[in-house]
Design brief:
- It is a single chain.
- By secondary structure, the protein is mainly alpha-helical.
- Helix content is 58%, strand content 6%.
- The protein is built from 35 helices and 9 strands.
- The strands form 3 sheets. A 5-stranded parallel β-sheet has the order 4-5-6-3-7, sandwiched between helices. A two-stranded antiparallel ribbon has the order 1-2. The protein has a two-stranded antiparallel ribbon with strand order 8-9.
- Helix 19 runs antiparallel to helix 20 and helix 28 runs parallel beside helix 30.
- The N and C termini lie far apart (65 Å).
Amino acid sequence: DVAEPVRLFQLGDAEFPALRVVAPGLSNLPIRPTRLIGRSEEVSEVRRLLTTNRLVTITAVGVSGKTRLALAVGEAELPHRAGGVWFVDLSAVSAEADLVGAVAAAAGLVLTAGDPSKQLIDFLVDKPALVILDNCEHLIDAVAELAERFLALAGSATILATSREALDVDGEQGFGLAPLPSATADSPAVQLFAERATAVDPHFVLNEANAATIAAICGRLDGMPLAIELAAARVVALSPVELLVGLDDRFRLLSGGRRRQRQRTLEATLDWSYDLLDGEEQRVLRALGVFVGGFDLEAVAAIAALSRASALDLVEALVMKSLVERADRDDRVRFRLLETVKAYSEDRLLDAGEAALIRDRHFEHFHALTSADGHTYSELQLSLGLRPDRQNLTAAVEWAAATGHWTRAGELLLGGSGVFPLDFAWLDAMPLVDRAIEGCAALDVDLAERLKVLRLALLTAMGDRRLFAEVIELGTSPLGITRATAKAYFAFLLAIVGGDPAAAVEEAQAEIEGVDAREPLAGDMRAFLYLSQAVAAAAADELEAGLGHCSRAVAAHDDRTDIVVLGATRASLAMFQTLMGDPQAGLETITALEATGIPDAQGHDIRAIAAVVAGDLNLAAEHVRAHADHAASGRWPGEWTNSLGLLVALDIAQGETTHARSLFADLKTARTPAGNILASHLARELDMVADHRRQKQAQPESESAAAAYQSRGMAILNAERVRRGWV
């Protein structure tokens, strides 16, 4: 029935037989109604693993597309499997006792009296067949036992299993299925959305106007194929922007549509996994829904009232079941829930009536971490250690505010610090600061005053002109540190948004001379004021003077220096050095800043400008893209504005001054200090090249690598602007 192969072809390190003709009937693979998108590499890798392993298990959370991938592998393998390819849908098998019968029926074996498992294995083991066991998780013990007996005998048949968790037997090769990439308009997730949307609405078109929003939708859905398909089906009634907003209630939004779609909703798929957990695993998974942006084992132990050892065991079990993801860090391991799993866990937490209890524990844990009492490390170390929990800190404050505990909310906002706050996701926390000031006014005057300074810091970072009135009020505060801090911010404001660089330099110099060295934040005050002078000098086209001011700002640091000031001064120094023709010095400065352990000090902006100076526009574009990606998860509007500045620099280098000017108009005033220095430089650059635009060569018709990166960078920025409501 089967022709012998005539040759071999190579795929990576693996060899596959040439095309064979398989006898009709040697497969029960169902026909896939739609094509598989974005999984060609995964298909090839699983096939490669099957050449050297007799049992391969594809693992991932539900809605990841495990079944689709297994079917695609089976179709690709069919011409090379003389014993056939047999697909067994175990989701329809409810009892372990029925497992062997289901596999036998799929392979066309009629069982007789005797040991059914032995009959099945004897029938399959010597055949060059592929058996696909789909959805094994609810029969995991029975499937593992059958697989162990199968692997104990030599043979040519292989098993491809799909499951939320591995079978955990000797000889098993795991393959973790990652989500579809979704960051850009040409990513597989966006292409999947577009194809499925077109299937339900022939008038739907993926274009420049909606690509960034659709990429944001796919990102919010964790790149999960089923979730993306369900979302795409709603384009007949909702625009992409409406879909993105509606994802806050994703289980309701994605439960409608056609009858077949309703039968395979997100919630039903996750119910399947949840029901397979034991009671303690369910309790912990529900509790994990309270975390935002990740968590560590200590936090799990605190909110679930467990010992660290028990928390480790339960989190490990949930990782093995593909419900929790490990997110490695250099110094400690962290974990996260996919956004869809988090939303599901939050719903179950509410259903169980445990939300208030768990949120109270969440607040207590982070309040204890931020308290300076009993700690031996500095404020800088405290900020660095808590930086991964920015979003958790904000969520804890939101809970305290919602329950009327304003003093505790204010304490957490300030993190036990005298003035400078811990590293929150401040863009989201800003409304809470306003409310906390009002709530604390009658409860703790000192705390309310410090919160006003915090508000001042946030408004400064966002270039808000309301600062002028704020500074006048705070300048009369009875708190000495508050007054000095207020004047420092005032000098900085004059430098970046006041439009009077000379006055800023004069104001800052007067304050530098008046700083009392005995003040706890004297080093920070001096550094910040010198930085104000540096930014003002850059705006006045006095780069040499600006470099000198910036060097003095760095020298003013001490072991109590705030993390924000430390990063701002050194990043600004690196920007000055790079723009003034010494990119190597700039790279050395930013590398030294990165060595301090500050996660935000990634230096993509300095490296991008250094590459532009060196004429390597493709490398520059890669760093622009990386900076834009980082800015999408940043704290300030200034971070994405800085990314726009880098795109302007890349445009200028490519001779695209018309586009550069259109982007430059969006820079406004919300920039970091280094971003202000760059913006001053770009303004002069645009003036210099304006008269030479006609001499620039036109960009080739085929899109360059730099232009491609630029386009993707803008897509990320635009998606974030839509998500945050900035446009």
